[in-house]
Structures are given as structure tokens and as C-alpha cells.
Protein 1
Amino acid sequence: MKISELSRTTGVPVASIKYFRRQGLMPAGKATAATLAEYGQEHVQRLRLIKALTTLGGLSIAATRDVLTAVDQAHSTESALGAVSYALPVPVAESPVGDAGREAEIGSAAEAEVADLIAAMDWQTPSTSPHVEGLTAALRELRRLDAAYEPGDLVAYAELARSIAGLDLDRAAAFGDPEALAEQAVIVFALSAPVLELLRRLAQEDQVRRRIAGGDTGTGAE
Amino acid sequence: MKISELSRTTGVPVASIKYFRRQGLMPAGKATAATLAEYGQEHVQRLRLIKALTTLGGLSIAATRDVLTAVDQAHSTESALGAVSYALPVPVAESPVGDAGREAEIGSAAEAEVADLIAAMDWQTPSTSPHVEGLTAALRELRRLDAAYEPGDLVAYAELARSIAGLDLDRAAAFGDPEALAEQAVIVFALSAPVLELLRRLAQEDQVRRRIAGGDTGTGAE
């Protein structure tokens, strides 16, 4: 198809398609004349993926390029998942730092907590993993806010996260073609966090209604 | 304490504190003279919460005000959780719409899928819940991307989400004071999604390493 038809099919303006091409996010079409190129189904799929990453995933063009590079280089379920997981960040913003002494204390406590958790779960995770740093940052922020949670709470959530990861990998393993696999991995990583959070909210809503209906006023007397 | 000390303690500039006051995000200090006010521990906590909502939660000032209003009006675990959950959105961006016919088909399919899921889970959820619309939007986007998943996959994730919601509500029920409860609910809602996602990523990483070490090349032959 011509670029105008590619634009109609995907809803992406011609100028944006050309921009994505120049930025190296999308392979060239097959040249049919000096100023004409033929695009195929792979360009439609790639454009949809770029849209998802930049809108639903909230990624910059540079970050999108990193993810697409990882996708193109992946040759197995595991390496695709691993590469995409490392490339696609989990955003954790942190409050401006206040008292330096308290910050140092909070930092050490959060690091120890993550190390203890990884040991308790027997997780094979290098300390250089971006997810180790991400979780440490999230726990620092919880401590800054004096969030009330116990180490045992974290283990309970980690056990459920392990079950979720098992579902994720089983779904990924069902794919035969590494390219399709890698692209699905990007979709799953970009979209599964909001889906899971929405399922959790719906489940909370149900349990809130049942507990109110049951006359439990939430005073801790359940 | 004076406003200068409040600023030092929290790391929030005096100008920002005054801005939050004018925007109605924070109660006034106790007036001690025409131009002086005394601030207490409740202002320190409130400022930390505002910081978390606007940085880690990524909320606008207007959205932060809505959440704080809900927090101040909550009188029980359940109403605090419910109000905060409705006020604190789960962001779901959607791709620009392409073909109108396909969009209509995608929209109907996603709505039916959410209705079926809620029925299958026996969830008590009004159709006006923002989470119903949020999940429908997320599923529309998955369909636009031709994401490969089965209705059964969604139920499996929903079952785990139910367990997570149970942990959430048990933790909330452990609080006695509704004000502290409501504030903790905000913290948990704002911070627990990235924490859960990071735990899931760490668990995936562990399972990826184990499967690669086990020689499973991810061709679906597990």
C-alpha cells in the first residue's frame, strides 16, 4: 500500500509516519520509484505498536526506539521478555530530599528491605537490575511518607506477584515466532500494569461493598 | 513551628507551601499574629502527602485537591478506600481512532468482555464505576493492537487481583483512626501500583533466568 493508505489504515498522519521513519522507529517501505514506497502489513503492525508505546506506554521517542531495538534483536521468549522488561521502565518519582541524616537512614533501610525480600523469595536477580533500583526507590518513598506496612506485607504481595509472573511467562511461551513474541511482550508490558491495577480496583470495590453491606465499619474489628 | 521551619522539615519551598495553602490543599496554620502562623505535625504530614500525590502519583493540583477532599470527608475504612479509589484515576491512554466500523466492533467486544468478566467473578460493581470504563478502555486498546489473549487469561489475572484486593483491605482495616486510614489509603493507591509492578518484574526476571538456565528456549515446548 502507499503511505496515504497506510495513514488511513492506522489513523497515523503521513507527517508522523515520515517522522517515525526518520527517527529510525520503522523500517523503510519497498521503493517502487524515486519518491514512492510500498508498505505492508508489518508497517501497519509496527505503527500500532509505536502508537501504543507512546500513548498507553507514555514513552518518549528515544525510549520507544530503545524498546523497538530490543524487540528487533530478541531471539527467544526469555530474551525478548528480559530485554523488553529492562528497556521498558516502571516510573517511580521521588519526593525532593529533606533532611540528609534521615535520607541516609531511609536509604539504608530500603536497600536492606529489598535485599531481605529477594533472599526470602529466593529470586535470582542481579543487584544491577533496574527493577532492584526501582523497588528500592518506591520503598524509600513509602518510608518518607511514613507509610504503615510490615516486611511481611511485602512478602505477601511478592508471593502474588510470583503467580502473576508465572501467568505472564506461560502466555509468552505459547508463541512460536520470536518476532511476534517480542512484540506481544512489549504490548503485555506496556498494557498489563493498568489492566492489573483496574482488576484490583474492581475487586476492591466489590469487597468494599460487601464489607459495608455486612456492617463492618472498618474500625479494625473484623 | 514557623513556615520557614515547616519548609526546612519537609523540603518544600515556602512559596510552594503558600501556593498549596491558596489552592486549598492544606489547612491554615494557627494565627499567632497578623502575618505569622504556627504549623504543626499535621501540616508536615499533609505536605508529604501532597508531594507524593503530585510527584509519585503524577496528579495535577486540581486532581490532588479532589483526592484530599475525599480524604478529609472519609469516616470509615470502606468509604475512605472507595472515595480515594474513585478520585485517584488509573491512567489509560488510547490510540487515535482509525476505521469507524472496526472501532464499533472493538468497542462492543470490549464492553461484552468486561460484563462477562464481572459476571464470572460475581463482582458487585455499578456500570457507572470509573474502573469499569477504565478496564473497557484498556481492553479496547489491547484489541486495537491485536494483543493475543483469551477471556480465560483475564479471569486468571482477575482471580489474583481478588487476592491482592483482599490484602489491601485487610491492611486498611488494621487502622483505627479514619483520618489516618484515609491518608494511608491515598498513599497505598498512589504507590502500590508501581510496587506491585516492580515485584512482578523481579519475579519475571527470576523465572526468565531459571527457564534459560533450564534450557527452555521459549518455543512453546515447555
Note: Chain B touches chain A through 106 residues (CB under 8 Å).
Protein 2
Amino acid sequence: MALNERIAELRERVRQQRPLIHHITNFVVMNDTANVTLHIGGLPVMAHDREEVAEMVAMAGALVLNVGTLSPDWIEAMLIAGKRANELGIPIVLDPVGAGATSLRTASNRRLLEELRVAVVRGNSGEIGALAGMGGVVKGVEAVVEADDPVAAAQKLAQQYQTVVAVTGKRDIVTDGSRVLAVDNGHEWLKTLTGTGCSATTVIAAFAAVERDYVLAAAAGLACFGVAAELAAPLAHGPASFKVAFYDAIYHLSAEQIRAGARVTSLSDDQSIAVAR
Amino acid sequence: MALNERIAELRERVRQQRPLIHHITNFVVMNDTANVTLHIGGLPVMAHDREEVAEMVAMAGALVLNVGTLSPDWIEAMLIAGKRANELGIPIVLDPVGAGATSLRTASNRRLLEELRVAVVRGNSGEIGALAGMGGVVKGVEAVVEADDPVAAAQKLAQQYQTVVAVTGKRDIVTDGSRVLAVDNGHEWLKTLTGTGCSATTVIAAFAAVERDYVLAAAAGLACFGVAAELAAPLAHGPASFKVAFYDAIYHLSAEQIRAGARVTSLSDDQSIAVAR
Amino acid sequence: MALNERIAELRERVRQQRPLIHHITNFVVMNDTANVTLHIGGLPVMAHDREEVAEMVAMAGALVLNVGTLSPDWIEAMLIAGKRANELGIPIVLDPVGAGATSLRTASNRRLLEELRVAVVRGNSGEIGALAGMGGVVKGVEAVVEADDPVAAAQKLAQQYQTVVAVTGKRDIVTDGSRVLAVDNGHEWLKTLTGTGCSATTVIAAFAAVERDYVLAAAAGLACFGVAAELAAPLAHGPASFKVAFYDAIYHLSAEQIRAGARVTSLSDDQSIAVAR
């Protein structure tokens, strides 16, 4: 099966299975990521209290941990939910928002990566560079200096924590440390809106809930996210009208659109991703 | 006066009186429900600190308690605000988001219902079923299995806590345990957006602030909410453009549109709702 | 240089410098104000934990303190961030949401004004009147009774705390206690949406980050905000479509539009604002 066909099939699988995506996430994007979860085909829930997160995550298809507006008690809840997710084999997708910007953020993300088995880490080049110790400067939550070598930084981080790392930017990179996929979908409008990185993380989580090859799941999620952005762009008059068109496009995103539009290529020798398993 | 005429009159009363709707609600929907409050004609305020909730609620026309992203200290604030509201005769509208999904949510909602006199409980069929102990399965915040008999579950819950229960779904049910009204307005697009149940709760609260017959207030609020959704649907290209058109429609919703569009019928013998009082 | 030319130049300076605007703000408007920050040309970050706010604010061009959904621990974080901002000469813009509505809100805002050097306070007439002790009644977060004399109330508050006060309403007033500017831009649709005052505060912060004459910065920010609203209004069918058009207009707001549309006039004898410095 060609890669785009597999991506299209995964997108449909999300629609069919309607996985619950449990988010412990930041206040800025809760509404947006709940909507994106619904539009891609999943069910969202936001729950952060330590008394209920273990019970809630047990119903979930994936757990999103996002430190965008972190405080220590939320990190504790993330660890409780994450450990339960690990016990149950539920994939965790981590969004290390602002890693590198403050020591609290860098330390909290490292702690999550050390104490939990994280399926996918999705960050911008500055965040991933900072976590890998390979360059990247984060101002607030924005990468103002890219990692020196995003592919190498992602591979190092993936190997260090035995996880899959997705670096989003003009070209997205997804790697488990050996296999490397590049995703060349997306649109400049995405940078004019808050929380589009967080929403990409949510889409990856929805795909990780239905596909255990997390390299494929992350690349497929990012390709779908990017194709929807490309479909929306011609309808936009600015960031806000782009957002409306983009969300509509995520909801309607069809197998035909994915087959025609997804641009995922392997940068590693291993070509297994592109063939049927 | 015909029922639709009364609903139209209540909608106008909200616009004239501009009741303050004090929300202690979840992080996901705060922005949406504040906007819906304004669009229907009220004034929103979100305040959750126990030091100020009693003082804030004293100015309000209604109090919304919504446990969508609960934590124990917020429940304490809800109880403080709720007790003050009870003292002052200010109606409380409870949205038991995710009741049945975790024991914390189920227990917290029961506690609110036991310690406060709640004017209206608005939930989906799964939440109401779970609270009534009559079926219903909630996954996250979504009813994945409906209550066995939504009307019976609503009636039981209403009788148990001497409240009005509104169950929203394809057909909305409103009952005080004896009178039963059905509302057949709304649109499928509502299910593609997060927080539409919470927004329906807010609209009910605005109507409860201006009408002490809470069965009528809840049914009127749901009918207006649903008529606005129906008016918006032809303008939608997807969930996000639906949301824009829907909010615009709530704002503009006129007596003529309500008279022509509201579909509320009595399922009980008591026909008093449909006649002038 | 004519005043409108200077305003246009400041708007462009924001785009060029991309200042980080650190918000410690309320849950209702976080998403909106993050987007408005991006659209006007800055970078937003929301961070409230006392362990990281001092480190985060050190990167910022301005700090927004907004008490819309306050609790005592957030006030503590505001004080920590604010003191560090004062040490570093980073301007603080305070939005005293709901001052006058509850004693907690009034006391918290006074404490912030007493313990910090605040560059600009932006509130509605009720909030500023309440803080100045000169009339104004606030119901929730809305001014239901205006200050007796908004200009006098703003001047008194400005003198008392050696700050710049911006009172927004049909006519906006900006004063440092002696100089007084009036801004006659804006549109009625702004009142139909939640958080537009908070968004105006954010725009003022972006301008204060690039211009140390805070009277000019505040007036310029409000003029740009208002011109964008006027440009958006003809495209609106209601509050939600207005919001989309408004955000798009903020993003695209050009020097030509500002030159043609800004309406700022001096109400004080001092004409220095209108000439080149």
C-alpha cells in the first residue's frame, strides 16, 4: 500500500474508532484542541485533578501532556495520569511548550520524559533543540533560533528517551532515532495563530490512538494537519478567517484530499514505512 | 398566550433586563459561554475564588455551576456561591459535565445537588442517566450509551432533588418530575463543536434569571438555542463556520424567528404550560 | 511628524521588533489575547507560576497583569513578575477587570498599583471610577454606571499612582494626569464580544514595549485597535463574524489605514504629543 493510502486509511480509522483523547493541557488552547479533536474524529476530555486523572485516562485512546501554562501541581497530575497510561499501554504524546525558555519548563519536561514512557514528543525546533542540548533558543513559546541541526537534535532526543520525536516547522521531521520521515505540508498562516503547534500535537495523539507505529502515526497526523491548512489557505483573508476555514477543512478532510496532497518522504535508508506491513 | 409567544417574550425580557450570569465553569468553555451570554442579552462574569464568589453572586440574576474541569477547591467555591445564591433566591443552573465518567465527577455533582437547591440541571442523556442510576455511559464528557429511558431518568432525578432536569439530545426533555416538555429544535452541527452543551446551560441560566417557572425557562432557552442553530446551519461549510453563524444567529434571534421556529410540546397531561398564566 | 504618522510608525515598530508580551491574565481571554498579540506583531506567552514568572518576564518587552479571574496565588505571581519587570525597566500594563465589583478585586488592584510601578492602567469607566473613588458601578465586569467624570477620574488615578490611565468607552481617554488625549475610534460591535477590553490592553502593551512615552503608546494602541474595528464592521453579520473580520483587520492594519483613520486629539494645553520629538 502506498504511504498516502495508509495515511488516508488512518484518518478514517480515527473517524471510525472515535478515540477519547485525554488532555492535561494549557489554558490557552483548551477550547481549540477540544474542537480539533472533534473535527479529526475523536472525543476530547480535559481533566487535570489528581483525584480523577488515573480513572479518566483509563478510558482514553491517548493522553496529551502539554506544559504550556504549567504549575507544579499540574505536573504531578501529569505524572499520575502518565504512569497509569503506561500501565495500560495507552500512548502519551508530550508537547514541551516553552522548553528552554525557563528552567521550570525545561526541568518539568525532562522529568516527564524520564519518569514516563512517552510515545511521541512534538515540539518546535527551538524546544527540541533545547531538550536535546543542541542549540535552539525559545522566547516565550516561540523558537527564535532554530536547533543547529533539527534532524540530529530530534534523533538524539529520540534515542535518549526511546521515543518518537516530531519537530514541526516549514519541513516537519519525525524520527524514532533511526527512521526519519519528512512532512512537507502546512501553510504560513499557521504561524499567525496561537496554539497551532498544540493542535498538531492533538492530531498526532488521535492517530497514535489508532496506530501503534508512532513514527507513521505522527507523520500521518502532521500530513493531515498540513493538507487541511493548504486546503484552507485560499479561503483566508487573514488569520481568523484562516482558522475558520482550517477547522472546517480538518473536519471534512477526505481520503481523496490526503491521497492527492500528503507529502511525506523518508530521509533514512529504511523504506519500510512506505510499504504495506 | 401561545407557548411560542411566551418564549419570544422571555427572550426579549433577557435583552431588556441584561441579567448578570455568574459562571463558575470549566476552562474549555469560558470564552464561548461568556460570548453566548452577551449574545443572548445577559452580562457574563467568571469568578471562582472563594474569597469573592459570595459577593459576586449577590449581583447575579443566575449562577451557573459547571464541573467540566473540576478540582476540589473549585467545588468548595461552588458550594459557597451556591449557598449564598440560595439565601438570595438566585436560581442555580448545574451542568454535571462528565458525571458518570469518574467517581470524582459523580460524587461532586451529587454533593452539589444535595447541599444546594438547584433550579435546573442540564446534562446529556448519559450524564443524567448516570446521576439517576438509570443507565447511560459517559466516555470523557460524551454520552456513548444513552440512558435507558431519558424521560424516566430525568423525572426520577427531578423528583429526588426537587429540581428541574433538562436532558439535551436529538429531542430535548425538560421536566420537574411531573410536567414534561419536549423541545425538537437544534441541529447536527452542534455535536461537532465542544461546549455546545455548556452554552445551552448558559442560555437556560439567562432565561431562569428572568422567569421563575424553571420548566418554562429551560424549555424556552433550549428552543431559542435550537432555533438559532437551525437558522445558522444553511450558512455553514463545517463546524467552525457553523459556530460563527450560530453565534451571530443567537445575537439576532427575533420574536418572529421564535414564533415561526420553536417546537416545544407537552408530553404530560398538564397543559398549563401552553396557556397564559 | 503628524500624530497619525507616528502611530503608523509605532505599529510598524511592533511588527519589526516582535516584542514578547508576557501575560498573567484571566482564563476567559487567554486564547483571544494570544491571537491579538500575534496579529498586531508581537509574541505572546502566558505563564503564571511563581517559580517561573520572574525568569519569563525577563525576556519580555511588556508585562500584562489582568485580574479577570483572579485568585490570591495569581496575585502573588503578578507581584513577583511585576517586581522583576520594574527592576528591568519592562513596562507593566494593568487591566483591573471588575474593580469595584467585589472587595477582593478592588483590593487586589490597589495592591498591584501600590507595590508596583505600573506604566499603563486600562479599564472601563466604571473600573477606573471605582479605583479613583469617583463614581462608577461595576456589575460583574461591566460598567453599568459610568464614572461621574471619566477625564477627572483618570487624571486623579494617574496622579495618585504616577501612571498613565486609559479609560475605554465610546470615547477613549488617555492621561498621565496632565496631558490628556482622546481617541475616537472603535465600533459598537466591540461591546457584543467578551474580552475586547482585555485585547485592547494587550495591544497597548505591545505598543508600550516599543515606545517609552506611554501616553502616546496607549493612545496609539487604542487608535489602531479602533481603526481595525471600524474596518471590520462592514464585513460583520453579527458578533462572531465581526470578531473574525476584526482579527483579520488587526493583522493587516497598514500605515495607510492608520493615517486615514486614526482620530486622536489632545484635550490638554500641551501639544507636544502631536509634534516630532
Note: Residues 86 and 97 of chain B are 22 Å apart (CA to CA).
Protein 3
Amino acid sequence: MPLPQEPSIPGGTWGGEWSADAFRKELMDEQVRPEDDAWNNPWDPRGTELRDRPGSYSPPQSPMPPSPTSSFASTSPPNESASAPSSGRESRGSVKKSFNPFAKSSLDEFLIGPEKIPVTEKERIYIDDTENGPRWRPNPTEFTCSVSSPKKESKFHGMKSFIAYTIVPSETREERVRSERSCVSCRVSRVFSKQSVSRRRYKHFDWIHTHLTFKFPFLPIPPLPEKQISGRFEEDFIEYRMTMLQSWVERICRHPVLSQSETFHHFITCPNDEKMWKAGKRRAENDRLVGANIFQAIERPHKPLDILHVDATLDGFSTFLGRLDESVRLAQSTCLDQAKRYQMDFKREHDRVSFSFSKLSKAFETDPFNDGSGLSQALQEMSTAYEEIGTMYEMQPKHDWDPLSNLLFEYRGLIYSFSSVNSLLKDVLAKRRNAEKDAKEGRLEYDQLPHIINHSDTVAYAFEAELAHFQAVRTKDFNKAIASFLKGQISFYQKISDRLGTSLQKFIM
Amino acid sequence: MPLPQEPSIPGGTWGGEWSADAFRKELMDEQVRPEDDAWNNPWDPRGTELRDRPGSYSPPQSPMPPSPTSSFASTSPPNESASAPSSGRESRGSVKKSFNPFAKSSLDEFLIGPEKIPVTEKERIYIDDTENGPRWRPNPTEFTCSVSSPKKESKFHGMKSFIAYTIVPSETREERVRSERSCVSCRVSRVFSKQSVSRRRYKHFDWIHTHLTFKFPFLPIPPLPEKQISGRFEEDFIEYRMTMLQSWVERICRHPVLSQSETFHHFITCPNDEKMWKAGKRRAENDRLVGANIFQAIERPHKPLDILHVDATLDGFSTFLGRLDESVRLAQSTCLDQAKRYQMDFKREHDRVSFSFSKLSKAFETDPFNDGSGLSQALQEMSTAYEEIGTMYEMQPKHDWDPLSNLLFEYRGLIYSFSSVNSLLKDVLAKRRNAEKDAKEGRLEYDQLPHIINHSDTVAYAFEAELAHFQAVRTKDFNKAIASFLKGQISFYQKISDRLGTSLQKFIM
């Protein structure tokens, strides 16, 4: 018997637990709007487009700031914002899957009592009961993974070109990881070709991303950097995407559940062999522990959870996530804007100062009473210093604003993904409440209720374990990223000061 | 018999020895035009007027950049550019006097042989023949003078208000200066009132400026900061004007000829006694050694000068002065523009960065899983750091851009004044050439020629001595001003770096 639907809860949206609209409106009034604030520049023929920054690729922002009346769920996720239509479409596709990765009927089935699927020990996902609350059991074989050497490759006799990246799991544990974790279909040949290199295209990343999203509906899968059609072979873009893919892979590696996914191991270890790759892909496609079924693989503490406490946790976290989303958007917008100003406006201002001092130097050069005191040369040196400082401004964003912007961009995606995890728990809690009500009023047999409560607790346990993981990761991420940003800024201003010190020595005091 | 007029030389203009128009046009194409380049600022209701800078007074630029076809002599001197009409008028008056301080007939008279005026030893102006060429004999009693304590005073029972400044000659030599140099009319009372303070109003500065301009037509008298009607009691303006008057007085004190002027000594030493002040004023008005007559007071080497060499010197210097004028204008415009950007745009950008990090901090404050790692506090501290850096940008111009701008403003005036000195020599050389031609062709008696040549050499000697002085002073001025500017910039960037270093310590690395 299917569970009755609760009509008052909109499926899969985030519907206003926190006063999103008021908050967003308040923010909008003060928010940086790069398109309103371009510095007119009669010297510079380049426009004020964010993409126009020389020498670096900037991740796109949402093309329009969210309208004050839009609900949170309807704002664009980062990988929906690509300007190329087809890329936008593909990315939207993958996000949609992550948003409602399994049918409602499948969720209902799971809550009541699904068809049992055999779970091997390797497939089990453990939640430990720690003194701080439920936690994912750490991955016993932690590892990292590098994405490098982007190279243009082609197939069909050069008819189709693409960029492929080399994927290498961390060397220190490489052997152990490869022997213990690589998928069965790869293992045999691995033994004979340890040196074979894994090369992956963006479409492979897209495939593994879709798989993880489908398999782990209770986890916020970090979105990929968006696909791009035009300019995808440009050096800046390739480097930017490699950085983002590297960061994406690292984030999966750091996750205690995702990092143990056999399909992910297939993705990072399978050598360049079409047959082996397809075999692993087929295994993944035949995996029955996906969607609602994956909850059967979760081994969690037996203690039932207090539904009021779970509700409060969800509410508190939703409020926080809303605030974090707004502030991360604003901060990323500021990073992009500052990077642009460094490369355009600040550079131009220093060029102007340089030009003025150079003119002054040239005037003193024509001084017929030049006493050889070197004033003209000193002024020229000073002009060069300001020109160099202008160039320092131009090159600086890659040391501070760009990496910080990249992290914030990732977080915008993570936050968006988390909103679907929130929705899942919310749906489950609503169904549980309805079931309790129905049982009380005789519309549901009483012996079905413990199943439902038990299974809804599993979803809640997974949620709490993931919240704890997310908290630890974001504290580390932000501390590290901002410390690195500040170090970049400190050394930047120090370098300017030092450079001017060299100029000062040329003047007679 | 009056000298025949040479119609081909326009009286008192600079007429195109250097390719001013081409050079100016080239410069105009690249020049900073603050009015074209205002940064749009939706946050800031203030306009982009240069005068709008908060917390400081900026010297005005010429209201319009010179049109590419205007001749040098027709561009506005600094003290013509005041926006208040009456101030503009007054200033123009004083500049006009300096431009043609004595009638042509008086110059003719001097060249042929003027009425002898008795010159006392104290009134003599010596030009020494050094191995480097003609030089003013240094002032044996060098001194400086401070302008301080601007205070609003009034007379006619409060009907008329004005600002008066305290003038104090340098203490170390004060006694000697006062006893040896103070004017006769002041000396007696001085002995009895050593502590009496000299208070001077702007109109007194204006009077001494006019006197010096009239008395020493062969010297470029530095112009005064412009008179201002509206806002003249505002603190920023008063402080700015005091700085400029101080600098003006110092420049007179540093000049070997001007610093020995009895009237100038009267100006800096006469106590606040109406009777004594008027007595000194009357003496100055009765001074007959003014205008063309002052050349009678010049004692210079007997050796006649090579007119071709003098011509070449004048040409070379005119070219240099034109270049210097253009580059000083551009540099001053850049200083004003940068000061404005520091106080408006750079400050605003740092405020935005601060605001973004503050929002991020506030979001983390609402984190229900706050682990006490202090991320929110660290972000707030960082936000404060950027806010403080914004304020540092706002306050910085007074330590670097403003003082440099002030020096450049003074030089624009000096260069302008020098153009009338150039014109004087040019007129004299033309008259001498005509006289030589007339003598050859029998239109002038031959015994008049040596007088004319002798007296034109006196003007040329004075010119060369003044060029040498100007050269020494400007090398010192620019070295000092730019070194001071660079020191300001170096310590500024160092402070920013240090401030961010404090923030960095709050993050866990």
C-alpha cells in the first residue's frame, strides 16, 4: 500500500524555512554588481566583460543575480550558468538527476520495506556512534589523486578532438590503493601494467559525477566545473578546468563514503583500455545498490533518533545554508570583481603614474643645465617601478583572488547539492509523520510503522553524519583558503614596498 | 631718441621657439582627463568633482586643459584658476604685473642710459664670475621663516573677518637677522619688543608679492596660492593655504637676491603695529630702484657676453621650460587624480571586500555546528583589517600625493613666471640687434651702441645667474619631494602588509 502524499510540502524545493527573500533583498541592495560598476576607461579598448580578463580564466557567475522574489531552489547552480547553450543543458541535466535521483515510489518502497538486496562487506557504509554524534567511519585507506598533463587528443582519424587529463592516485599509497581498491575487472591487467597511465576526458568526469549522484542521494556531490564548447582548447581555460577537476577529485577522495566507491576507483585507476573501461562501466550500470536501495547498505547505530531533534537540526542547518549561500555568492562576486579591477583598473592607474613620471624624466633629460645628479635617470627608474607594479597587479589575482574565487565557486555548487539532500530528509520526515498519523487513525496497519520509523532514522543518521563531515571539511577549507589568500596579499604588498625601496635609493636625499 | 620697435616680435609672448603645439597635442592624446574617467559609483552619492575629496583640500587645476592650438603664454597660470570670480580677477592682476612690470619706454631708457639713481651698498645685487659661469652672490645671512598658527581675526568691531598667520624668521639666526636686516623704521622698536609677534593676512602676502614682482622683473617670483572667497574659513583650506604660504616664504628665503630685499624683511619682521607697518610700506612705495632701474643695482663681471651664446642659452632653456611645463602639468594632474582615487575608489573597493568578508563571518556565526575553531571571528577580524586598509587609503594622500602635488603646483607657477623673464631677455636682445643694425645703417649714433650692449649684457648676466639658481633649486626640490613621496608610499604598503599579517595569525593553518 503506497503512503498517502502530503500535499502541503512541495516536492524537492526548499520552501522558506529561513527568511530567504527578506535576507536576499537586503543583500541585493548593497551587493556588488559588476555590470553596474565598470570603470570607464578611455585608454582601454577592451570591454568590461568579466571574461575579458587577460591572462587568466574566470569561472562564470550566474548571468543574472537572483531576483528578490525567486525561491532558493530556483537560483542557478554554478554549472548551470555556462553561456554555451549545450553545455548549460548538459549540466542542468546532471543537476536535475542529483536533485531527484530516484522516484518517489522507490522512496516509499524503501520506507515500508524494500526488496532485500545482498550487500557485500566492501559495499557496506558504516555510521559510528561517537560522543559528538553520528559520524561516517573514516576510509581506512585514505588517498589523494592528481589530475595533470591536459593534452589535446583525437579519435576517428582526427575528426573528433578533446582534452584528456592524466589521473594518478597518490604515490605513497598507490600500490595499496591499486591492489586493494581497483575494481575486479581492472585488477588482473593492473598487475601486469603498473606503469600504464589513466587518461580521462571531461565526459568521463561527467559520467562518474552522474553515477555518484545517482548512487548516493544522501550525499551532496560537488558539481563539476561547467562544460564549455567555445574556447575549450584555450590554454587559460584548460588550466582553469584542470585546477577545478583536481579540486573535485580531491574532494571525492577526502569523503569517507565517496572515496570508497568501487566505481570511483574504476574511474581513477582503470588504464586506457576500452574493453576494461567498458567492463567497469557495465558493472556500475548493473549496481542495484543505488537510489533508495543504497540505504540498505548503511550500518548505523541502533538507537532510535528523536524526531524533534532531527527537525531542529534540519531547520538550523537550512537557515545556516541559506546564509552561507548568500555570503558565498557575494564573496565570490567580490573576488571576481577585485581580480578584474587588479588586472584592468589598478594596472591602468599604475601605468598612468608610470607614464607621468616618465614624462617628467624626459623633460629633465632635456635640461640644458643638467648637473649629472641623475634626477632624470632616477625618475625613469621610478617610472619603471610603477610600470612593474602595474604588471604585478595584473599577475596577482592568480595568487589570491582566483584561488579564493574557485573555492567559493565550489561551495556554491556544494551548497546547491546540499539543498537536495535537505529536501530528501524533509520528504522522509513528512512521510513518517503522515504514517504515524495514518496509523493512529487506522489508515495504516500498526506493524508497518516500526519499519518506516526505522528506515527514516537511517536517512536521518546519514544526514547527521554528512553534516558533521561537511562541517569539518568547510572549516578546514575556509581556514586554508583564506590563510593562503592572505599570504598572497601580504607578499604582494611587501613586494610593492620593496620595489619602491629600490627606486628610493636613486634619489639624493 | 627712442629705439625703433621691431614689429616681428610679439611683445611678451613666447611664440613657438619649441614645437609647443605638436608636443602638447601628442600629450593631450594620452593625458589623464579626470572628468572623462570618473569611476561610476552606485554606493557613493558624491560626485566626481576633484574638490569633493573628503578630509583634504586639493589645489585646483586649470578648469580646462589647454586647447591644442593655444600658445603657451595664454594658458592659465595656477593662481588664475580659482573658481571664485573676484579671486580670479585679483590673481590675474598680480600676474599681469609680473608679466610686463615696467613700460617699454623705461626699458628703452635703461638700455640707452637711464637717469642715475644712487645705490647704497645694501641695495647692490652681485653677480660673481665663477668657473661654472655667472652666479648670484649667496646671501651671507641665510635664514628661513615659518608661517604658523592661522587664526580668524576681525576688525571694524567684527564687521570684517580674516585669517592671520604668525610669521617667525628662523630662530637660530633670528637675532642676527632681526638686528642686521630689519628695516630702519622697525629697528628701534624691535630692540624693545623682541617677543612681539608678526601676524600677516593674505592681503599682506599679496602686497609683498606684488612689490617683489615689480621690483625684480628679471626674477621669476613664485606665485601665491590663489585667493579664495567661499570656503576660506574651512579648516582644510586654511591648512592647505598655510602650507603653501610657508613654502612660498621659504622659497623667497632661499633666493640669494629676494631674501635680501629690505621690503621682504619688513614683511617678515615688522611687529603688529599699524604705524610701523605703514612706514615700511611707504618706504617700499618710494623705492626708485624698481622695474628697469633695478639693473643699475646689479654689479656683474665686466667681460662682455657672446650674444650667440646667450641666444642659444635662451632657446635651450625655453625648450626645456616648455617640456617641463607639460610634464609638470601632467604629473600634477596625475597626483590629484590618484589622491581622489585613493580617497574614493580604492577606499570603496576595500570597503566592499571588508563587507563581503563580514557577511561570510556572519554566516559562519550562525553555523549550528560551530566547533569553536574561531573561523567566524577570524573572518570578522579580516573584514576589519580591510576596512582599516580602506581608511588608510583615505588618509594616505596627505603623506604622498598631496605634498608632491603641491610642489608641482608651485612649479607650474614658477614656470609661468619664468616665461615673462624669458620674454624680457628676448625683448632686450631684439632691441640690441636692431640698435646694432641701425648704427650700421646710420640711424643711430655709434657712441650710443656701447651703452646698449653693456646694459643688455647686464640683463643677460642676470638671466644666466637666475638660470643657475633655478637649476640648483629644482634639482634639490624634486629630489627631496620625490624621495619623500616614495617614503610615504613604501611605508604605506608596508603598513598594509603588516596589518594583513595580524589577520593571518587568526586563521588555523
Note: The longest helix of chain A spans residues 307-365.
